[in-house]
Design a protein that fits this description.
There is one protein chain. By secondary structure, this protein is of the alpha/beta class. It folds into 2 domains: 155 residues, Aspartate/ornithine carbamoyltransferase (Rossmann fold), CATH 3.40.50.1370; 157 residues, Aspartate/ornithine carbamoyltransferase (Rossmann fold), CATH 3.40.50. Helix 7 links the parallel strand 7 and strand 8. Helix 6 crosses helix 13. About 3% of the residues have low confidence. The chain binds phosphoric acid mono(formamide)ester (CP) and norvaline. The site of phosphoric acid mono(formamide)ester has 9 residues, from helix 2.
Length: 318
Amino acid sequence: MTHTTTTSKATIGTRHFLSVREASDTDLGRVFDTAFSLRDERNAGKPNAPILAGKTLGMFFEKPSLRTRVSFEQGMIELGGHAIVLGQDEVGLGKRESVADFTRVMNGMVHGIAARVYKHAHLVEMAEHATVPVINMLSDLAHPAQALADAMTLMDEFGRDLSGKHVVFVGDGNNVARSLAMVCGRLGAAFTLASPPDYALEQAFADRVMAQCPGMDLTMTHDPKQAVRYADAVYADTFVSMGDEHEHDDRHAAFQGFQVNDELMSCAPDHAIVMHCLPAHRREEITDEIMDGPRSRVFPQSHNRLHAQKGLLAVLMG
Ligand code: CP
Ligand code: NVA
């Protein structure tokens, strides 16, 4: 979590979660510990302690959402708090009101700000002006809240120690891929992106991952069948992220051969699981057979969003 140090704009010690890279090992460990323990309580039919009683999360969405909205809002409710959900039609971020003024107003009314935005720079600007925690609920750059649930799903399968495990993302080097690569590196797992040449992770991003996770096994390839040969988990996401719709036809042409299907998974080890952040475009990046088949962990993964987000909220706002 980013520790803000600018006294003029934000209180020292206000902690944000804009990307996995900025979270300390201690905070990441606390998020996972808390998430698993809250999940165990819930699964045992016990209500969680109301550790966020009297606290409100102000949520702002510039793009659609199902999992992120429900997991954060339900998470606040289950921890005894409350959430207010705002859309761009009412807020007009950057149009009706500047990002800085939006944040200054929210500072005095809620106890945390969570935002899904097109431009990651808007989250950075919020964090500069916030005196309450700012959480990234997806930007063009990163989807770190998803990565927390992805890591939990991998831990459910392979145990808390993910060192030596290998996650292969087949598709676009996008926001989800970046956050997954970073969380894999932080947790000692290897990460491979198999993408068409024009859709690889940027070298500057790969350099940042390697700088933070020296010795990490980070591979970029354009051959998905080769990539999945030693995979423990194969991950799919849409070929056309929100905001990229104008590139739909070019992307669909470029991503031919990058579908996660029976043919591709026949190249993977028998134990390899399949993950997807959802929403899935069935018969595009993934087939029905794989989504609904025995290797799929897609829906438990979606449910882990709730538990991961509760762990994050408890650590940041509890
Ligand atoms: N995976 C995910 O973030 O889903 P939503 O876009 O529905 O929130
Ligand atoms: N990469 C996708 C993820 C959606 C949860 C997007 O940004 O649209």
